[in-house]
């Protein structure tokens, strides 16, 4: 996330629970992004085909929610010092563009085909959302932030449900003919997700409700930084978590929960669950002091962007290294997977074991970095 890698939260105000929640989230990202066989995956580790929400669909919105919480912690000091705003704005933009560039590099590697490179993506969306949410936090107060988030959600709902789609007809929520898909194909033809080619799950229009996801984290972060009784903070965090989750489910009846187009109901539903998840971590770790179990997740949380980038880069490098076998030349990923996993496990468990191996590999690497206090910043 945007933790230490982008804007380091001051040590005196850091929440271990936030680092742990961040770590759980990025670890889950690696788990769902690195199966041994994309055709053999347990149902909870798959995205919903279209409408609906699986546990996997929660990962990215949780990530953006934590970005918002981190913004509130990282920029609270600068917000109170207007003379520093110009310099802070330049840092925000530089770091957001760096995240965008890292995502573009992953999309280009290893072929560097600029004619068909996917421009949207996870890191690209994080970078754009970070810039917008951070600037909103820096320049506005809480009431305005709430109004902006509400405007984004209601405005997106109105566009998607009522605005005619040029060249297609009435508003609709079908994968290839909705307004967001039309805009992606109009502005970024040939540069969209390879699996669809005509729309992108991190597309242009759906980035606006994604900003609202991050703003929900900004609002929670401001609440947590208040000088107040921890029990009171947890109580209100849980109350609002339940309220947002229920509102999302109610809105789902008219505007279906859908990650691929990041519907407004999806924002409320996932933000509510993120509040409940963070509230639980905050109570267990920062209030009750249960910390012994947290180290594996903490090491992921303090170097989240680093490990996410490496988890996208290293498997591709592995696929570039060729190995000669009796059956012919194969890439080293296939060689390792078929030599050590598929002969000993069922296809679906072999696929899961491969993903878990990556998690354990990175955990060892990150633990060594954590012990040496190595935190790579964007």
From TrEMBL:
Leader peptide range in chain numbering: none
Keywords: Membrane, Transmembrane, Transmembrane helix
Residue ranges of every copy of the Heparan-alpha-glucosaminide N-acetyltransferase catalytic domain listed in the record: 14-227
Residues annotated as transmembrane: 20-38, 58-75, 96-112, 118-138, 145-165, 203-224, 236-254, 266-285, 297-318, 351-370
Cross-referenced Pfam families: HGSNAT_cat
Top-level taxon of origin: Bacteria
Tagged with keyword Metal-binding: no
InterPro entries per record: HGSNAT_cat (IPR012429)
Chain coiled-coil ranges: none
PANTHER family membership: LD22376P
Protein's name according to its UniProt entry: DUF5009 domain-containing protein
Lineage: Bacteria, Pseudomonadati, Bacteroidota, Cytophagia, Cytophagales
């Amino acid at each position: 996330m945007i933790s230490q890698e982008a804007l380091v939260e001051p040590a005196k105000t850091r929440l271990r629970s936030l680092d742990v929640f961040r770590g759980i989230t990025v670890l889950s990202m690696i788990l769902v992004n690195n199966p041994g066989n994309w055709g053999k995956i347990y149902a909870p580790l798959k995205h919903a085909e279209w409408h609906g929400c699986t546990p996997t669909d929660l990962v990215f919105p949780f990530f953006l929610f934590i970005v918002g919480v981190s913004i509130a912690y990282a920029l609270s000091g600068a917000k109170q010092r207007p003379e520093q705003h110009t310099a802070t704005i330049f840092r925000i933009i530089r770091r957001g563009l760096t995240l965008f560039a890292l995502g573009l590099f992953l999309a280009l590697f290893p072929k560097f085909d600029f004619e068909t490179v996917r421009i949207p993506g996870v890191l690209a969306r994080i970078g754009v959302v970070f810039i917008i949410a951070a600037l909103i936090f820096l320049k506005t107060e809480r009431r305005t932030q709430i109004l902006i988030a509400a405007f984004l959600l209601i405005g997106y709902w109105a566009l998607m449900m009522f605005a005619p789609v040029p060249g297609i007809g009435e508003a609709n929520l079908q994968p290839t003919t909705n307004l967001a898909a039309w805009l992606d194909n109009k502005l970024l033809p040939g540069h969209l997700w390879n699996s669809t080619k005509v729309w992108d799950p991190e597309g242009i229009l759906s980035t606006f409700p994604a900003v609202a996801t991050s703003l929900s984290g900004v609002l929670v972060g401001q609440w947590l930084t208040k000088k107040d009784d921890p029990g009171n903070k947890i109580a209100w965090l849980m109350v609002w978590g339940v309220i947002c989750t229920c509102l999302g489910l109610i809105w789902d009846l008219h505007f279906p929960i859908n990650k691929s187009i990041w519907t407004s109901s999806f924002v409320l539903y996932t933000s509510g669950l993120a509040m409940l998840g963070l509230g639980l971590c905050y109570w267990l770790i920062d209030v009750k002091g249960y910390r012994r179990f947290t180290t594996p997740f903490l090491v992921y949380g303090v170097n989240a962007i680093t490990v996410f980038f490496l988890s996208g880069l290293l498997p591709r490098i592995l696929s570039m290294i060729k190995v000669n076998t009796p059956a012919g030349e194969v890439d080293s990923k296939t060689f390792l997977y078929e030599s050590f996993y598929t002969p000993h496990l069922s296809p679906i468990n072999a696929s899961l074991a491969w993903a878990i191996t990556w998690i354990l590999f990175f955990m060892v690497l990150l633990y060594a970095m954590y012990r040496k206090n190595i935190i790579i910043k964007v």
